[in-house]
Structures are given as C-alpha cells and as structure tokens.
C-alpha cells in the first residue's frame, strides 16, 4: 500500500480528519483521537501503525512484517506497526485500519459518537 492509497482509504472511513505531524507522518484521527499513522521507516519503506485488539496484538507480533509499534507499545498500548507493506498485505491492512477506526471510535463518549454520526451499534 502506498501513502496515497493509505490516505485515500483512511479518508473514506466515517468522521475522519487528517494532519501531517510528528516528523512528516500521515496521521488519521476520529473524534480527535489517532487511529492510524503512515510514515517512512528504515530504508525509506512505508510503514503503517494502528491500534488493535489484545488478540490481534498477540497474533501480529508473531508474524513477520509486523512489530509492536515503537513508542505506543512500549507504554503498554496495543498498537502494531506494519513494516512490510507489500501488495499481498493490502487486504489485511485495510481490515486492521478499519478495526483500529472502530476501536478508537468506541472509546469516544456517546455524545461525541452521536455528534460525528458514528453508528457503532
């Protein structure tokens, strides 16, 4: 997935906002809370960071191409960084980005969810 594809996909999710921050990272938020980050890793390869469930955190840390996200995971948060963005992981990445958006949305107040038009039923 390229950064353009990443930005297009994240922008297609409900009630998202975009900002470039943290050393030129593509940061996507829902309700003011970060759910996805795209940046360049070692060797200028695209990397993508997202929040996951406890189960997916364990699952992904055991698979090549993923690692606990620097900074986030070291503070006990369940965030993963995809460090291998080859085409065969496009479908998986869109799944995890969607899940991250959902997890972060659930953490918003009910009032904020309603203001943003999020149907999390």
UniProtKB/TrEMBL annotation:
Superkingdom to which the source organism belongs: Bacteria
One Pfam family cited in the UniProt record for this chain: YjbR
Residue runs in coiled coils: none
MF terms in GO: DNA binding
Protein keywords: DNA-binding
InterPro entries cross-referenced by the UniProt entry: YjbR (IPR007351), YjbR-like_sf (IPR038056), YjbR/MT2646/Rv2570-like (IPR058532)
The protein's name: MmcQ/YjbR family DNA-binding protein
């Amino acid at each position: 997935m390229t950064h353009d594809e990443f930005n297009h996909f994240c922008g297609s999710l409900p009630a998202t906002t975009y900002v470039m921050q943290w050393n030129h990272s593509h940061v996507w938020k829902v309700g003011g809370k970060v759910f996805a980050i795209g940046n360049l890793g070692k060797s200028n390869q695209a990397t993508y960071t997202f929040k996951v469930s406890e189960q997916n955190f364990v699952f992904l840390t055991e698979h090549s191409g993923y690692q606990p996200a620097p900074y986030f995971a070291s503070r006990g948060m369940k965030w993963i960084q995809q460090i291998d963005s080859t085409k065969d992981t496009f479908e998986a990445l869109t799944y995890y980005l969607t899940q991250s958006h959902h997890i972060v949305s659930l953490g918003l107040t009910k009032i904020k969810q309603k203001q943003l038009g999020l149907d999390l039923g």
